[in-house]
Amino acid sequence: MAQENIVRHESRVDRQQREARNQHYGLTIWFTGLSGSGKSTLSVALEERLATMGCRTYRLDGDNVRTGLCRDLTFSPNDRIENIRRIGEVAGLFRDAGIINLTAFISPYRQDREMARALADEGDFIEVFVDAPLDVCETRDPKGLYAKARAGNIPNFTGISAPYEPPEEPELTVHTDANTLGECVDQLVDYLLTQGYIEASLSQDASASANA
């Protein structure tokens, strides 16, 4: 009944106006992969590169979000679904603001990632599979989570006691075990430029500033 009393209130400044001012589209770059694959590290580095190009960005990270917006959620399958639903809705708000938002979440289930994609218009959602073998991810484990999971101290841990379903058709796959961080960022920026998500002039301006 309460839903019947809700009426969406539209702004007089629309998304197209915001994107024209920004010189880039509002879109979601959704990083997915095992814990330790490099999602957060890559999203931080890409955001920094985009910022130097003059892009307006915001980064949503798994641990950060769980300290606030999703602090009431566990890592049970149902709570994982709700976690991704909330992030998908927030990402949509950033897209409407004309902002490039970067999300770094394990998001282990394909249907959950498709749920987040379904909230976006065609072409507004770029799924990036951050691909690294499990054994490599375990060696990058500064918090010791894999060791705790293998000892049975962390239930529902993706890759150990809970499944990870790799994307079947991601827009991009980056191999953080085979390429440097800089090479992975270059791959992502090249994609955004060649697909027309950001204007080439932003890249040229950034290069000119760096060489000034």
Structure notes:
The protein has helices at 15-22, 39-52, 62-65, 77-96, 110-118, 134-139, 145-150, 181-194, 200-211, and strands at 27-32, 57-61, 100-104, 125-131, 172-175. 33% of the residues are buried. The chain is globular. It is built from nine helices and five strands. The termini are far apart. The longest helix has 20 residues, at 77-96. It is of the alpha/beta class. It has a single domain (24-206), classed as 3-Layer(aba) Sandwich (Rossmann fold).
Taking strands numbered 1, 2, ... along the chain, how are they ordered across the largest sheet? 2-3-1-4-5
- Approximate shape: globular
Specify Rg, calculated over alpha carbons: 18 Å
Mean pLDDT: 88
Order of helices and strands: HEHEHHEHEHHEHH
* Strand portion: 5-15%
CATH topology: Rossmann fold
The number of domains is 1
Uncertain spans: 207-212
Q: Report how far apart the termini are.
A: 61 Å
